[in-house]
From TrEMBL:
InterPro entries (UniProt xref): Aminotrans_II_pyridoxalP_BS, Aminotransferase_I/II_large, ArAT, HistidinolP_aminotransfase, PyrdxlP-dep_Trfase, PyrdxlP-dep_Trfase_major, PyrdxlP-dep_Trfase_small
Catalytic activity: an aromatic L-alpha-amino acid + 2-oxoglutarate = an aromatic oxo-acid + L-glutamate
Role: Aminotransferase that catalyzes the conversion of aromatic amino acids and 2-oxoglutarate into corresponding aromatic oxo acids and L-glutamate.
Cofactor annotation: pyridoxal 5'-phosphate
Quaternary structure annotation from Swiss-Prot or TrEMBL: Homodimer.
Name by which UniProt lists this protein: Aromatic amino acid aminotransferase
Any one Pfam family match given in the protein's UniProt record, by short name: Aminotran_1_2
EC number: 2.6.1.57
Keywords: Aminotransferase, Pyridoxal phosphate, Transferase
Length: 370
């Protein structure tokens, strides 16, 4: 007797207008899941043991994940209170937006960028302000700075940009921070920082440490390079009072003891981590050259994913990858993001992509202008 087309209770209109969440396609056993930028490797050495040893499931976790907080503070040479741990860096993003931005306020970010950004602003009651990427799929930081109004409360910069791949340079970022009023929060989302090989890329920790910009908060995560996406743990580094404000909006005790010990164990084996990150970055560079050689116009890729600007053909072309056992992430009307996964998947991606590019019309953005 329920009518699924209407919500049976009064819901905030901006929330009711949001599209219901649809789970991405789950890969069947033979397909490669290249749709969520996950790490194809097993957990690092010692991680499973640490999780198993943290067995007090009848007890609440430590509210501040204090041991992990201390360890990250040591690792980056900051004080404990300059570190905040969250159940994934997306949860910290949510907290920072809630803490800074409400109805009538504006949250600026590049578009296309991380899918979660528009919803975060809307959930806070604020207005998302989307600044188009440049023609080479990079942040247009001067345009973002120019979009600041007296309603702006937060700006999100994503480097490398998910889903298109390029970084923001340190020089660009420094200039941007200098141009933005010092009382506006700048969130530097560095979810893929570990995969970056471009020496000119922004490093949030360098900005925080040497320049002393108290309005910049850097966000990092254990989900991607560290392969702990399923456990949900990420962190922010920034001014302690900004992080206190974020904490005030958080769902208490959402970082589990298992997530905390897994992150701690992962930090113990940095060499092993860097080996696999290097491997993924090398696969990425190989796949990027292969795609370009096949005639694709692919933007620079500094994360663990590549972007095919497939435009109007996106859904049809994503289906071609899927038929071949490659689950990719299509953004209708825009492009396809392909995560760098298993070695065998790289060859397969290149083979399908090479056959698909042939079918793009002359002058299509995916083939470049050449
Ligand atoms: C994956 C991702 C995150 C982090 O996700 P968590 O799993 O919540 O840590 C944050 N920002 C971007 C741009 C991402 O792609």
């Amino acid at each position: 007797m329920t009518d699924d087309s209407t919500i049976p209770v009064r819901v905030r209109p901006e929330i009711a207008a949001l599209p219901p969440y649809k789970q991405g396609k789950q890969a069947d056993a033979t397909a490669f899941k290249l749709s969520s930028n996950e790490n194809p490797f097993e957990p690092l050495a010692g991680v499973l043991e640490a999780v198993q040893a943290a067995t007090a499931l009848n007890r609440y976790p430590d509210a501040s994940a204090g041991r992990l907080r201390r360890r990250i503070a040591e690792r980056f040479g900051v004080s404990d209170d300059a570190v905040h741990i969250g159940a994934g860096s997306v949860s910290i993003l949510t907290q920072l937006v809630l803490a800074t931005s409400g109805p009538g306020d504006e949250v600026i970010f590049a578009w296309r960028s991380f899918e979660a950004y528009p919803g975060l602003a809307i959930i806070a009651g604020a207005t998302p302000v989307q600044i188009p990427l440049t023609d080479d799929f990079r942040h247009d930081l001067p345009a973002m700075a120019a979009a600041v109004t007296d309603r702006t409360r937060a700006i999100i910069v994503c480097s490398p940009n998910n889903p298109t791949g390029p970084i923001v340079t340190q020089a660009e970022f420094d200039e941007f921070v200098a141009a933005v009023p010092a009382d506006i929060l700048i969130i530097l989302d560095e979810a893929y920082a570990e995969f970056v090989t471009d020496p000119d890329a922004v490093d949030g920790l360098r900005t925080l440490g040497t320049e002393g910009h108290p309005n910049v908060v850097a966000l990092r995560t254990f989900s991607k390079a560290y392969g702990l996406a399923g456990l949900r743990v990420g962190y922010a580094i920034g001014h302690s009072r900004i992080l206190d404000a974020a904490r005030s909006t958080s769902i208490p005790l959402s970082v589990t003891a298992q997530a905390e010990v897994a992150a701690l164990a992962s930090l113990e084996v940095e060499d092993e981590l860097l080996d696999r990150v290097r491997l993924i970055a090398e696969r990425r560079d190989r796949a990027l050259s292969g795609l370009r050689a096949a005639g694709w116009q692919v933007p620079d890729a500094q994360g663990n994913f590549l972007w095919l600007p497939t435009g109007a053909e996106t859904l049809a072309l994503a289906a071609r990858f899927e038929e071949a056992g490659l689950i990719v992430r299509p953004f209708a009307g825009d492009g396809i993001r392909i995560s760098i996964g298993e070695e065998d998947a790289v060859e397969k991606v290149l083979a399908i992509a090479a056959s698909v590019v042939e079918d793009l019309p002359e002058g299509h953005a995916g083939r470049g202008l050449a």
